[in-house]
């Protein structure tokens, strides 16, 4: 049962193989088994690749099954259309388009399986890429808020500096009137004289201005800090909104790109493995000598070709004979006097009727 199934997969003529030797049947059963298991691997590879796209098992398995059936049909067609010839170069030339197609199929099949085999290494590369994308995204978003944040910080620093300068000026006035009272500067008279009172009043006025400035600038600084906090929240919101897009950066194209960043040699050997599997039925037919099946198939095709050619020649001869007979028949008829007199009588009657009709029409006009 299994042998018959694999023979069916090989695309060979089961009726001819049924009358062939057991070794011939085993050869085509092996070719059919290769075709079948290649389709199975194509199904697995396509299902995994589509799962990375759709994230659902049902969809991935359904379309993977369709892809496996397509690859099975292509491989079966490729193997079944290769015919054994007497010249190996003719066979190779005949098989060259099939070999190119087999190489394309091997690439398509091997790539998803490479993604699965090197999944851990690809995840590491994707993690590095995601981290780079996260940092680049944060820097890009930060450029939108940096000017406003810098302007706010500069304004806060300016307001604080204004208070600091005012405090320095007040402290300087305080030191002045204290030194006046102690006799260290100014009039150098110990005691609280008129000059002391004047400097004390100036200090007190400046101290009042400092208190007012602190109250006004503190309110402004508080508003600026609120604006700064709002900008920080907007920045965090944009980063959090865009981060899921970066976290989902693990689709099929991203994985293929990450695979290309890994060393090429392991992937190349996997591709060679699938290429060998995909082309093995073709080369098996090319390298194997003509067997019983090939001779029987060639005999049957030659028989059909001869029969079709014979029918075509018979139709051609029949047509030529019919033309010759028709020429002779009509030639003999044209020489008979009876047919001539009959046609002459008919022509005379036709001309008389035409003359009568013309006469009547002319009379009506007059």
From TrEMBL:
The chain crosses the membrane at residues 28-51, 57-74, 268-287. Pfam families: DUF4407. Residues 149-176 form a coiled coil. Keywords: Coiled coil, Membrane, Transmembrane, Transmembrane helix. It comes from the Bacteria. This is DUF4407 domain-containing protein. The lineage of its organism: Bacteria, Pseudomonadati, Bacteroidota, Flavobacteriia, Flavobacteriales.
């Amino acid at each position: 049962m299994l042998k018959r199934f694999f023979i069916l997969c090989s695309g060979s003529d089961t009726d001819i193989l049924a009358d062939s030797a057991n070794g011939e049947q085993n050869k085509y059963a092996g070719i059919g088994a290769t075709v079948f298991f290649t389709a199975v691997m194509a199904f697995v590879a396509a299902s995994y690749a589509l799962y990375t796209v759709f994230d659902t098992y049902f969809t991935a398995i359904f379309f993977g099954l369709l892809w496996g059936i397509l690859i099975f049909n292509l491989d079966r067609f490729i193997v079944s259309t290769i015919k054994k010839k007497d010249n190996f170069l003719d066979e190779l030339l005949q098989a060259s388009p099939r070999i190119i197609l087999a190489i394309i199929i091997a690439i398509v099949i091997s790539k998803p399986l490479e993604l699965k085999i090197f999944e851990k290494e690809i995840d590491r590369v994707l993690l590095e890429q995601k981290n780079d994308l996260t940092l680049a995204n944060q820097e890009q978003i930060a450029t939108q808020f940096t000017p406003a944040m810098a302007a706010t910080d500069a304004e806060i620093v300016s307001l604080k500096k204004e208070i600091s300068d005012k405090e320095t000026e007040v402290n300087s006035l305080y030191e002045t009137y204290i030194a006046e009272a102690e006799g260290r500067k100014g009039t150098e008279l110990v005691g609280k004289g008129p000059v002391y009172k004047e400097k004390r009043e100036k200090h007190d006025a400046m101290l009042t201005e400092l208190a007012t400035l602190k109250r006004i600038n503190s309110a402004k600084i508080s508003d600026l800090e609120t604006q700064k906090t709002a900008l920080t929240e907007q920045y965090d919101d944009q980063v959090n909104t865009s981060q899921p897009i970066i976290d989902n950066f693990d689709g099929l194209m991203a994985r293929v790109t990450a695979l290309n960043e890994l060393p090429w040699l392991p992937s190349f050997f996997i591709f060679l493995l699938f290429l060998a599997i995909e082309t093995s039925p073709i080369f098996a037919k090319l390298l194997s000598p003509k067997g019983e099946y090939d001779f029987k198939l060639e005999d049957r095709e030659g028989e059909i070709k001869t029969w079709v050619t014979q029918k075509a020649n018979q139709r051609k001869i029949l047509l030529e004979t019919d033309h010759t007979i028709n020429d002779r028949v009509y030639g003999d008829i044209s020489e008979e006097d009876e047919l001539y007199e009959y046609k002459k009588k008919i022509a005379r009657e036709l001309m008389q009727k035409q003359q009568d009709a013309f006469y009547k029409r002319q009379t009506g006009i007059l």
